[in-house]
């Protein structure tokens, strides 16, 4: 094992099997604090959302951050550890350098109860039989606990999606809706995509299931400031409510391999 690599062989295996892997403290505390401060300053300037006053948090989600991103506010995300993790999941092939790093993901608290979503599950790209040369990286700007708005994902689903695409004619690709239409034939996915009481839907996160020989389970992205999460591009995922006492503040970046 090369000790300078971001991901150990065991983590590479986790990524292959489950589709998501976490690297602890990949971004320094000082860089995280500086990026968090820039984000809060932007939120206060544009929306009057004050960090110290939850009474001002009158919005649910904020989407538009392009002017801030273009200033290089989140360039510290592109550190050597993050870059090496990207290299590893892309098989050390060259990739396109983003013009600007870091897309904020901000979800402010909403009233309970919390329930696992049923209708928002999707892919971000079309599915093909071979792994796309795409890496998705997330980092936490402040602590994120369960039910705090972290992205939900179906661990192992990338294997099922890839198998579905492989069954199509050569060169064919499946859209997110086509993947859902095929997976709904399985009882587990049909139930996941059916609304129900929170206490009933908790089983998708507490228990595992086997679908077409693949172990699947719903999980939430949680972590501490500076942790990074690398997610397979064919991972089924969904937004979740934030019923905590603080905003969900993360950055994400999608990396594309060179053609």
In short, what is this structure?
This protein has 259 residues and is an alpha+beta fold. 29% of the residues lie in helices and 18% in strands. The strands form two sheets. A six-stranded antiparallel beta sheet has the order 1-8-4-10-3-2.
What does this structure look like?
With 259 residues, the chain is an alpha+beta fold. It contains 9 helices and 10 strands. The model has no long low-confidence stretch (mean pLDDT 95).
Q: What string gives the helices and strands in order?
A: HEHEHHEEEHHHHHEEEEE
**Beta-strand segment tally:** 10
Assembly state: single chain
Spatial order of the strands forming the largest sheet: 1-8-4-10-3-2
Low-confidence stretches: none
Mean pLDDT: 95
Percent range for β-strand residues: 15-25%
What's the main sheet like?
6 strands, antiparallel
- Helix/strand-derived class? alpha+beta
- Helical content band: 25-40%
CA radius of gyration is 19 Å
Number of DSSP helical runs: 9
Distance between the termini: 29 Å
Describe the global form. globular
Write the layout of secondary structure elements.
Layout (H helix, E strand, L loop, with lengths): L8 H10 L1 E4 L5 H19 L13 E2 L3 H4 L10 H10 L13 E5 L26 E7 L11 E4 L1 H10 L9 H8 L3 H6 L5 H4 L1 H4 L2 E3 L2 E7 L7 E4 L5 E2 L9 E9 L3
Antiparallel strand pairs: 1-8, 2-3, 3-10, 4-8, 4-10, 5-7, 5-9, 6-7
List keywords for this structure.
18% strand, globular, 6-stranded antiparallel beta sheet, 259 residues, 4-stranded antiparallel beta sheet, alpha+beta
